Amino acid sequence: xxxxxxxxxxxxxxxxxxxxxxxxxxxxxxxxxxxxxxxxxxxxxxxxxxxxxxxxxxxxxxxxxxxxxxxxxxxxxxxxxxxxxxxxxxxxxxxxxxxxxxxxxxxxxxxxxxxxxxxxxxxxxxxxxxxxxxxxxxxxxxxxxxxxxxxxxxxxxxxxxxxxxxxxxxxxxxxxxxxxxxxxxxxxxxxxxxxxxxxxxxxxxxxxxxxxxxxxxxxxxxxxxxxxxxxxxxxxxxxxxxxxxxxxxxxxxxxxxxxxxxxxxxxxxxxxxxxxxxxxxxxxxxxxxxxxxxxxxxxxxxxxxxxxxxxxxxxxxxxxxxxxxxxxxxxxxxxxxxxxxxxxxxxxxxxxxxxxxxx
Length: 359
Prior knowledge:
Number of strands: 16
Radius of gyration: 20 Å
Number of domains: 2
CATH topology of the largest domain: Dihydrodipicolinate Reductase, domain 2
């Protein structure tokens, strides 16, 4: 295979297809892979790309495909069901691993393979997309701006856009499980939406943007930002209508119901009746916004803001930028976060990103 080739597993999904479509502009040649020939083969033929059809649980076929390349992007979520198999196959075939995960539990599971990856000489970098490239880079920027920071708050919101089937399905699998924060270096379970606040996301072309209400969620940074910065207390927030925030205050009363297969399967059927994800026009007209604030023991704060393309577009660019670096020999063996591997300015390589420290 050419030196610019990598395996893209889950190319049949919404984000996987975007990565396949954008790859030529870098220029990279993905080998499209997945279980569904009826989707993979037509896409490969349309883009003029090679393809492989196999189930990830077929260890022999998976390892054979990985032996053809230096790196793989796993775009087949939910990653709690696909990450372990792919990483273990990568360790057997000396293949670098990337994914677009945002699940705390998956990040924590993958960290357990750090030593094995170092011995093998490969890099494991989950969260190579909107989960968690912009927030991770902002976290490291804030840590460098305030080295003695003891607490970190990160928030994000999206203007326009929508959810893909994969993202929505992953959210359904987490219904009723509550939230999480990092406290004194440990991940602590908390109710979803335990805290809420108003955040000014204005930056660059977004000057004058009204403040957006955000609430705490168990975003991947609860795991990754601690690895990147060492800051012991971390909270993550997302934009949410205040009415929903107040409604969630009573969620603990019916979490048991949300965890039942009856409810989750009903919602998955509803998801599958919707479009696969936002249209190209919706993505082009949407923006993602990120805010972060670090605080030290004396109460001093540093705040930074970032704006960029819509989340799926950002994910597509960031995943391709990172795999291109790996194929060029720029990687650090072992478990990495985006910013621990490539620094706080990685996000600035993505087209359309603006960032500023505001205090």
